[in-house]
UniProtKB/TrEMBL annotation:
Protein's organism: Priestia flexa
CDD domains hit by this protein: AmyAc_Pullulanase_LD-like, CBM41_pullulanase, E_set_Pullulanase
Protein name per the record: pullulanase
Keywords of this entry: Calcium, Glycosidase, Hydrolase, Signal
Signal peptide: 1-29
Annotated catalysed reactions: Hydrolysis of (1->6)-alpha-D-glucosidic linkages in pullulan, amylopectin and glycogen, and in the alpha- and beta-limit dextrins of amylopectin and glycogen
Enzyme Commission number, as recorded: 3.2.1.41
Length: 963
């Protein structure tokens, strides 16, 4: 006998209490639709498509599916319940039109309009442009409305044609789904969409209660009719009732405290104290069941409190009468202090420990009920040999394999609840191609000949002059003269020459005179396919996959696990041999996606930071923040940094988005490195990011006083010099902004006197002074935006003035690769996936800008010669740096060194020359004049007055008066 399922549902509804208050419910459809309208630039010749990803998930390429009067159109089904979807307009070679954009699809469908060259995401066609939707003079609409509480008393609809007045419509019919309202609307000018609100009259007030905000009907049949289904608390408008699941069921059960489970159903039920509302938990005694809102008597979400703490290593089944049963998942309990205290493991043997006669394995997975080591024969094997792991102390699992396991390919499998997850060992030190499996290696066999020779001397961290570089950018230009293009080994090549015989690669960096090379990510990252290296691919690498392994695309053979390790060591060794220290950019603040993170596969919910409502924190802007405040995440970060510092002999670590981390983690990193080598530099982006950490615990500039020995990028001097990086046409001191003298003075003095609401630097080694980096526009491109009418010579002078101020300020100096020859990316301010043509170091430009390179070399030479540019304490700066009275838009000061020898520095940001009295004694040596720079005197100045050209820096050596 066939029974109508809606009839069964209504019988179940009749069992529930009628008293009920409105609340948000889960949408049960497992897909969402994204509609993107894209208007190309005129005369476009590029083949644009879309890269789309659900918030917190993995991305995928999609083609545009059609065209309308506005431009290209893509209609894409997204298999996810996410509320937001990100997208990028791009080509297959990752040329991008605009930046990352987002579509809101929490009602199941999102539609946006975008225009080439305009980063705005429009929810309606921009500028009143034509929307290619059919228009009807008459529409007939049927709305089916289901309420879980079956209480339709005084509910009706308020409806309106878009942009016109509304009217009330009553529910006059009913069917198996619920109540039904049918109405017609007429408009001679045409109707394209119809808005509606479900509302309830209370005590005569027609708007006493309403459900959700404005919603719209946009799909009509050819005759102008439309039929939709809506359900209580669900925002999505359904055009197909089969997409709504109203069968009573448990939709979520998570352990959120050590003795508490949060249970959620799709249909509300009455709270009955006598029998705990019909809820049972297999093998556990329930103390009480409490609705989240204690005043509610009917709800769909309750807290199930147990008499004793739950065992997080067990799989529990929870049941509710009429709703069935479900496996309880681990929820917020793993993020509790009790969890950390119970399972923190402080041993040094996580991962694999190799010896020639045996290899030991230890995995931390405290919420797993079973765990296995899986060994594979080849990198692309789909099945392997499973070896059970034994449960050990503090949530760890162990086993030991006898014999020489050098080259063993392996993963871990863990059973979480009733599901098996497989993942790469987070502590793996070697991996297969694309990092999909871990590998055991004898690390001694990866050492180059004469490995760990003496590294370059560094007396004080303030002596560092950092050169930020991408491995591929250095050598990939066809004119680089480098054989191993885009590789670690390309950095090791000496004697390479480019156009006109200019030095390239390593020789160029060495000739420049910097002390440190800082590589943007060189660990194993996600978004370059190492099996397709003959195809054009590019990424900066801020999407970590395996933290303790070098990136395979920079090796000559990513299929051989040891090659990438040895070749990265060769690169470090070569730089050390050439008197250059090495800093590694580390990105412990987020991963590519939570859904595929090895951390989350092994211990779901632990390693990432969550908001109070259970959603992932997103201070990083990529959908996930790691939780450094948790003991095992903090331990991983510290262990990882120690590993790189010792195994690869690195000299520094640059922490991406350091403000996501907590103060204690960064202090532990600093302390651990001090024990290895106190000269190792720790620097990072100390931005104040919107992540749910207490303000006094964030590792940002405002808390710099709590993190001695940790340096922060100084965005005050960066933006003060050239203008805000967030506003293209905003200018700074060197390119026309007035009234910047005080900001520049404080910045030149190391930022130690900034307002505490900005930063709390205590020592010049805590301040990284810079004007450009890999992020945002290059300085040259910024000057093109802010000063479009300036001559090229004027822009060159502004550029040199900014670099001069960076290299003569107190703190740690930082230069972006190519800054010395005024690097351009053609206006691309976010070139993280842009092609080589945008990102490569252009050695033709190096030749053309030879005079500017020589100027930068001279500034570096001066900084290295005179210790007064590199003072090591705040008191020393206060004692030896004195600002002089100077004309408007000029900053001038003296630095007094040993033997009372003085340097006078004048920065003139005016578009005209200025005259300034500098001495009552004469006989000054001019070292920098805005065109030339170096330690040798350009000329002697005997007059008490000097004339400083427009947009120029003067540096004079000799005794001058101080005022």
């Amino acid at each position: 006998m066939k029974i109508n399922r809606w009839f069964v549902v209504l019988i179940v509804f009749a069992m529930f209490a009628s008293a009920f208050s409105s609340f948000p419910m889960q949408t049960f459809a497992n897909t969402g639709k994204v509609i993107i309208h894209y208007q190309e630039a005129p005369n476009n010749t590029k083949d644009w498509n879309l890269w789309i990803w659900p918030e917190g998930g993995e991305g995928k390429a999609y083609d545009f599916t059609g065209e309308d009067a506005f431009g290209k159109v893509a209609e894409i089904e997204i298999p996810t319940n996410t509320k937001k979807v990100g997208f990028i307009v791009r080509t297959d070679t990752w040329e991008k039109d605009g930046e990352d954009r987002w579509v809101d699809i929490q009602n199941g469908e999102g539609e946006v309009w975008i225009k080439s060259g305009d980063n705005t995401v429009y929810n309606e066609p921009p500028d009143g442009e034509y929307r290619d939707l059919p228009s009807y003079e008459n529409v007939k609409v049927t709305i089916h409305y289901a309420r879980y509480d079956k209480n339709y008393k005084d509910w009706d609809l308020w409806v309106w044609p878009d942009g016109k007045s509304g009217q009330a419509v009553q529910f006059k019919d009913e069917d198996d789904f619920g109540k039904v309202a049918t109405f017609e609307l007429n408009d001679p000018q045409g109707i394209q969409k119809v808005g509606f609100i479900a509302r309830q009259s209370i005590n005569g007030n027609e708007w006493g209660n309403k459900e959700l905000d404005n919603r719209y009907i946009t799909k009509f049949k050819e005759d102008g009719s439309a039929e939709i289904w809506i359900a209580q608390g669900i925002e999505r408008v359904f055009y197909d009732p089969s997409q709504i699941d109203l069968n009573p069921k448990i939709v979520g059960a998570t352990i959120d405290k050590m003795n508490e489970i949060t249970l959620q159903t799709n249909v509300p039920f009455a709270i009955e104290e006598a029998d705990n509302s019909g809820i049972t938990l297999e093998g556990v005694e329930i103390k009480e069941v409490i609705p989240l809102n204690k005043e509610e008597k009917t709800t769909n979400k309750v807290r199930v409190v147990t008499k004793n703490n739950l065992d997080l290593t067990k799989a529990y089944k929870i049941s509710k009468s009429l709703f069935g049963s479900a496996t309880v998942e681990i929820g917020a309990a793993v993020r509790s202090k009790e969890f950390d205290d119970m399972f923190y493991y402080d041993g040094n043997d996580l991962g694999n420990t190799y010896k020639k006669d045996k290899t030991s394995f230890r995995l931390w997975a405290p919420t797993a009920t079973e765990a296995k080591l899986v060994s594979y024969k080849k990198w692309d094997s789909t099945s392997g040999t499973e070896i059970p792991l034994k449960k050990a102390e503090r949530g760890t699992w162990t086993t030991q394999l006898k014999g020489n396991q050098d080259g063993l390919i392996y993963t871990y499998k863990v059973k979480i609840g009733d599901k098996w997850n497989e993942a790469v060992d987070p502590y793996a030190r070697a991996v297969t191609v694309n990092g999909d499996k871990g590998v055991v290696v004898d690390l001694k066999t990866t050492n180059p000949e004469k490995w760990l020779a003496k590294k370059p001397f560094l007396k004080n961290r303030e002596d560092a002059i950092i050169y930020e570089l991408h491995v591929r950018d250095l050598s990939i230009d066809p004119n680089s003269g480098i054989k191993n293009k885009g590789k670690f080994l390309g950095v090791t090549e000496e004697g390479t020459r480019g156009p006109g015989g200019v030095k390239t690669g390593l020789d160029h960096i060495k000739d420049l005179g910097v002390t440190h090379v800082q590589f943007i990510p060189i660990y194993d990252y996600r978004t370059v396919d190492e099996t397709k290296l003959n195809e054009p691919q590019y990424n900066w690498g801020y999407d970590p996959k395996n933290y303790n392994v070098p990136e395979g695309s920079y090796s000559t053979n990513p299929y051989e696990p040891k090659v990438r390790i040895k070749e990265m060591k060769q690169m470090v060794q070569s730089l050390h041999k050439n008197n250059l220290r090495v800093i590694m950019d580390v990105v412990y603040n987020h991963m590519y996606a939570v859904s595929e993170s090895n951390f989350n596969e092994l211990v779901p919910g632990y390693y990432f930071r969550y908001n109070e409502d259970g959603t992932l924190a997103n201070g990083t802007g990529v959908g996930n923040d790691t939780a450094s405040e948790r003991k095992m995440m903090r331990k991983f970060i510290v262990d990882s940094v120690k590993y790189w510092a010792t195994e690869y002999n690195l000299d520094g670590f640059r922490f991406d988005l350091m403000g996501i981390h907590d103060v204690e983690t960064m202090k532990e990193v600093r302390d651990a490195l001090n024990k290895i080598d106190p000269s190792i530099i720790v620097l990072g982006e100390g931005w104040d990011l919107n992540t749910p950490l207490p303000a006094d615990q964030k590792a940002n500039q405002k808390n710099a006083n709590k993190m001695p020995g940790v340096a922060h990028f100084n965005d005050v001097i960066r933006d003060g010099l050239k203008g805000s990086v967030f506003y293209d046409e905003d200018s700074g001191f060197v390119n026309g902004k007035q009234g910047m003298e005080d900001t520049m003075k404080k910045s030149i003095a190391g930022g130690l006197q900034y307002d505490s609401s900005t930063s709390t630097y205590q020592d010049p080694e805590q301040v990284v002074t810079y004007v450009e980096a890999h992020d945002n526009h290059t300085l040259w491109d910024k000057l093109l935006l802010t000063n479009p009418n300036a001559t090229e010579l004027e822009r060159k002078q502004m550029h040199k003035l900014a670099s001069s101020m960076v290299l003569t300020s107190q703190g740690v100096s930082f230069i972006h690769a190519g800054q010395e020859f005024m690097r351009t990316k053609g206006g691309d301010h976010n070139s993280y996936k842009s092609p080589d043509s945008v990102n490569q170091l252009d050695w033709e430009r190096r030749l053309a800008f030879n005079q500017e390179v020589e100027y930068m070399k001279g500034l570096i030479e001066i900084r290295k010669k005179y210790p007064v540019f590199r003072m090591t304490t705040a008191s020393e700066i206060r004692q030896n740096l004195s600002f002089l009275n100077a004309p408007k838009n000029v900053v001038a000061y003296t630095l007094e060194g040993k033997n009372k020898n003085q340097l006078t520095i004048i920065h003139n940001a005016n578009s005209n020359e200025i005259k300034m009295k500098v001495s009552s004694k004469g006989n000054l040596s001019l070292l920098v004049d805005g065109k030339k720079a170096g330690t040798k005197s350009i000329k002697k100045i005997k007059s008490d007055n000097v004339t400083v050209p427009a947009f120029s820096t003067f540096i004079l050596e000799g005794n001058t008066f101080r005022k």
